[in-house]
């Protein structure tokens, strides 16, 4: 009987210590969260994500998501989100369907004028009529393309703004986990890279894309004037520049992250061993206490990193859906007008769809770069923790 009572007492003591440990860790995580300036990140995230995201995730709350992540849980209804994305896409297609109707009417009119040119006394009259319709058609397309360009530029600016606010906080949490070398390398490298990538894409690649689109429209206005080779050269230049940016940034950050995380991991393990063995009486207690604080910082860092990934995706979500809706409109229009329209108009509509696809690619590329950078930073901290 005494043995049974002893076992019951031991069981309750173990359970109580486990509960108290969980409560202590939760308290430490909450204190670190309040000290990490997450409020400013949340306000900036709310600003750059925008109210339109409520159409996809109606009850999204950044602070609640971060708190859930620190506890290892997140509420996410994938079916409802997918349904909302599909509804938003169809809504954007419906809102832009007037563009398709305008283009179809104009192309049919151009086709009629071209086919009736034999009825005119002078062929130049039919050419003037064609050019008039073509210019009106180009005006319609330029408006929608300018809208897409502005959308792409704005979403890139928002991602850069969010990354600039998040990197210092992420570095602070990285230092709190003992990754001093990683933080000293990552912070200047990431802030510099984020600024450079945003500047290159906004001030070089987007203007080049706009110029290429304008040349494509001019290239299709006449059978005698062609700048196809220049257009192809500029497109290849833009693709190469984007590829070099993506590859160079990810390669450098990955190598630096792996190297510095090993150094931090070995250093932390050495320090923990020294504290535990060379400080008399309380060395082991101090070592365990430091290990607990570092573990809490690691949990919070991972939660903030995942929150950053989610916010980057949400910043892009609505603009990408709008751009995809425009791409779908122009692809459908090109397929519909091909049998009844002049080949120059069909080519112009098709090339504008290609330009919209490049806008989409630019936005996605920037998002991928930032997603990878956050993942590498979070992973570097986790690698160093493995050495401890």
Summarize the structure in words.
With 388 residues, the chain is mainly α. The chain has one domain. Helix content is 87%, strand content 0%. It contains ten helices and no strands. The protein has helices at 2-35, 38-49, 62-70, 78-95, 97-115, 123-176, 180-219, 228-278, 283-337, 343-387. Helix 8 runs antiparallel to helix 9. The radius of gyration is 29 Å and the shape is elongated. The model is unreliable at 1-23 (pLDDT under 50).
Helix content: over 70%
**Rg result:** 29 Å
Strand content: under 5%
Largest sheet: none
Query: Structural class, judged by helices and strands?
Result: mainly alpha
Number of β-strand runs: 0
- Total helices: the number is 10
What is the overall shape?
elongated
Straight-line distance between termini: 43 Å
Q: List low-pLDDT spans.
A: 1-23
Number of domains: 1
What attributes characterize this protein structure?
mainly alpha; 10 helices; 87% helix
Could you give a quick summary of the protein structure above?
With 388 residues, this protein is mainly alpha-helical. It is built from ten helices and no strands.
Layout: helices, strands, pairs:
Layout: H1 2-35, H2 38-49, H3 62-70, H4 78-95, H5 97-115, H6 123-176, H7 180-219, H8 228-278, H9 283-337, H10 343-387
């Amino acid at each position: 009987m005494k043995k049974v009572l002893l076992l019951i007492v031991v069981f309750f003591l173990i359970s109580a210590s486990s509960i108290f440990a969980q409560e202590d860790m939760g308290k430490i995580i909450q204190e670190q969260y309040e000290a990490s300036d997450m409020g400013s990140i949340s306000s900036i995230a709310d600003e750059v994500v925008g109210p339109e995201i409520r159409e996809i995730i109606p009850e999204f709350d950044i602070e609640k998501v971060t708190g859930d992540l620190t506890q290892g849980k997140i509420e996410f209804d994938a079916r409802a989100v997918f349904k909302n994305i599909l509804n938003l896409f169809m809504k954007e297609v419906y809102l832009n369907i007037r563009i398709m109707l305008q283009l179809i009417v104009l192309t049919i009119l151009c086709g009629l004028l071209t086919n009736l040119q034999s009825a005119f006394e002078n062929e130049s009259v039919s050419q003037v009529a064609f050019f008039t319709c073509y210019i009106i058609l180009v005006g319609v397309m330029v408006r929608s393309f300018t809208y897409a360009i502005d959308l792409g530029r704005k979403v890139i600016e928002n991602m850069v703004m969010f990354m600039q606010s998040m990197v210092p906080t992420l570095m602070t949490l990285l230092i709190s986990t003992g990754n001093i070398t990683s933080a000293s390398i990552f912070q200047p490298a990431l802030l510099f890279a984020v600024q450079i990538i945003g500047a290159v894409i906004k001030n070089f690649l987007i203007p080049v894309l706009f110029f290429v689109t304008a040349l494509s429209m001019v290239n299709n206005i006449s059978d005698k004037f062609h700048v196809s080779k220049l257009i192809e050269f500029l497109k290849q230049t833009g693709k190469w520049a984007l590829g070099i940016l993506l590859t160079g940034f990810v390669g450098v950050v990955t190598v630096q992250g792996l190297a510095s995380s090993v150094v931090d991991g070995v250093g932390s393990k050495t320090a923990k061993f020294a504290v535990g063995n060379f400080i008399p009486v309380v060395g082991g207690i101090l070592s365990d206490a430091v290990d607990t604080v570092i573990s809490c910082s690691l949990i919070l860092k991972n939660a903030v990193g995942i929150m950053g990934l989610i916010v980057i995706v949400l910043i892009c979500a609505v603009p990408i859906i709008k751009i995809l809706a425009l791409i779908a409109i122009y692809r459908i229009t090109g397929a519909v007008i091909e049998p009844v329209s002049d080949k120059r108009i069909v080519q112009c509509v098709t090339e504008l769809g290609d330009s919209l696809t490049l806008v989409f690619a630019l936005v996605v590329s920037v998002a991928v770069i930032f997603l990878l950078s956050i993942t590498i930073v979070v992973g570097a901290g986790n690698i160093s923790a493995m050495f401890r």
